[in-house]
């Protein structure tokens, strides 16, 4: 399968990983939109939120647990951060491997619309 994030999981394309456990990887976004911008993904290939099956729901909890740890480690747990999932054309999703953006490190604009 030609999926760039699966290749990041496998290590066949380089990335700066800042988190890894059995089921989840977090790495620095190649085009950061904020001082802290980490992409958090399940190791399992799931195309997007619409592809999350009942059996995958524990992975969503794993991703949230990872996000909280990464926020602490990147120093934004107290100052604040945003966790964003893009799903489908109107969201601007570019990579079709489920992922969440952890953004922080400065005052984030609202709304995202
Ligand atoms: P999306 O728009 O699909 O929600 O976000 C995909 C994100 O992945 C973008 O912010 C983009 O900069 C990032 N990205 C795309 N390709 C790569 C890559 O090869 N390496 C890294 N580290 N980030 C990538
Ligand atoms: Zn994938």
UniProtKB/TrEMBL annotation:
Pfam families: DcpS_C. Residues 4-113 form the HIT domain. InterPro entries: Histidine_triad_HIT, HIT-like, HIT-like_sf. PROSITE patterns: HIT_2. A motif (Histidine triad motif) lies at residues 97-101. This is Histidine triad nucleotide-binding protein. The lineage of its organism: Bacteria, Bacillati, Bacillota, Bacilli, Bacillales.
């Amino acid at each position: 399968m030609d999926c760039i994030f699966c290749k990041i999981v496998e290590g066949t394309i380089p990335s700066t990983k800042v988190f890894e456990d059995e089921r989840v990887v977090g790495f620095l976004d190649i085009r950061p939109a904020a001082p802290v911008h980490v992409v958090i993904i399940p190791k399992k290939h799931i195309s997007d939120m619409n592809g999350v099956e009942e059996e995958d729901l524990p992975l969503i909890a794993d991703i949230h647990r990872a996000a909280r740890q990464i926020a602490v480690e990147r120093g934004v747990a107290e100052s604040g951060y945003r966790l964003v999932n893009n799903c489908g054309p109107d969201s601007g999703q570019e990579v079709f491997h489920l992922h969440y953006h952890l953004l922080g490190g400065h005052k984030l604009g609202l709304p995202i619309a």
